[in-house]
Specification:
- InterPro entries: dGTP_triP_hydro_central_sf, dGTP_triphosphohydrolase_C, dGTPase, dGTPase-like, HD/PDEase_dom, HD_domain, PHydrolase_assoc_dom.
- Pfam families: HD, HD_assoc.
- The protein is mostly helical and 448 residues long.
- The protein has three domains: 196 residues, Orthogonal Bundle (Hypothetical protein af1432); 129 residues, eoxyguanosinetriphosphate triphosphohydrolase fold; 114 residues, putative deoxyguanosinetriphosphate triphosphohydrolase fold, CATH 1.10.3410.10.
- The chain is 59% helix and 1% strand.
- It is globular, with a radius of gyration of 23 Å.
Amino acid sequence: MMNWEQLLRAGRSDLKKKTETIPDQYRSEFERDYDRIIFSAPFRNLQDKTQVFPLPELDFVHTRLTHSLEVSSVGRSLGKSAGEFLLQKYPQLSEKGIGSSDIGAIVAAAALTHDIGNPPFGHSGEDAISDFFKFHPCGNIWKDHLQEEEWADMTSFEGNAQGFRMLLEKDNGLQLSFATLAAFTKYPRPALITKRDKARRSQKKYGFFSDQIPHYKRLAELLGIPSSGKNTWFRHPLAFLVEAADDICYSIIDLEDGCTLGLVQLEAVVDLLARIIGERFDEEKLNSLKSKAQKLAILRAMAIGRLVDETVAAFREHEEEMLTGDFDQALTDIIPSAPVLEEISQLSVQKIYRSQPVLEKEAAGFQVLEGLLEVFSKALFNKYFDAAQFSGKDKSILRLLPEEFQLDKEVLMPYLLLRNLIDFISGMTDKYALSLYRKVKGISLPGA
């Protein structure tokens, strides 16, 4: 059984080594996490990555950056409220110097990074990378050079696992605390496991690549997180709050964006959110507001407030089961407003996620990412595994890659080569990916 003293253990380390850093006398470990993320390059890149809608000229539609900031804000509220409950129930936490603001900071920091591993063009970008290795000839040629578990990483690319990889990279300047890194990991398993337990939410996707199993194993040992099977672990309990913060924000805010863009009628939004708000909903006060934007803003704020309260209540009810690993569901699936959230999800799929702008963005994402992977992976393969086919064009293409691709052939690992390539491509912004695609395909020239 997990215990909160160990789960909230102070300290940070490079999980690839065994060195811990010296605590900061002015900020808690977890406040430092938040600040490091805010100032990191991978986080800044989220400003030019699609959330749902293609990046528009108008500024009211959310990007990955604004979405992540909002999820973090909701996460902080969830964490602080849950933290007050935990401090009352476990007074020894206060004796260890842990406050409710520390727990709020953990959830806020983990939530801030929850999309940091997502590639350009939203979730369609994940599918594009996976499909390249599944179906494209230039992707298939790598299969015989990889182990089974490595190939599974390639054919089922996962932004959560890419995020875990990025958070471990010291070059990003992050090196987060133990608790924040574990709270980030909603799916503590690799891509290839013996059997997935479909009843467990934590096994729905995977959270780290095959070469990082030892790193997560060490993290779990440090925090006392038990294994639930071979290469699978229970969730850190705060990961449930990180997940809930994301679920709350995309449910409500995607609906708001859809209404703002005219894809969903205001009347439908009012009806749905009023059912969440309940007795606090005041139709007369809402009608007194002049603009649609004002109405959406007050409805959003009140709905999120109610969902936060319901989620914290669910966390309190199931906290002990989380510690034993017996609870493994999304908190937003068991709160009183869950049926309304399901209706919002169905409406969003119908009216928003399958709308013309979104479908066009997804189609473009498939084309751009497939094209980039084709050009770069073919050049890499020719250089290291088929020298007779290595052309002048390939040489020019490879000069566009970062320095880490200059590997000695004697120590070359095909998996590492592809991991570095995917790091490069998944880290691109939407606009940069599109611009580079046009250039390597000869559609436009530099400066044109």
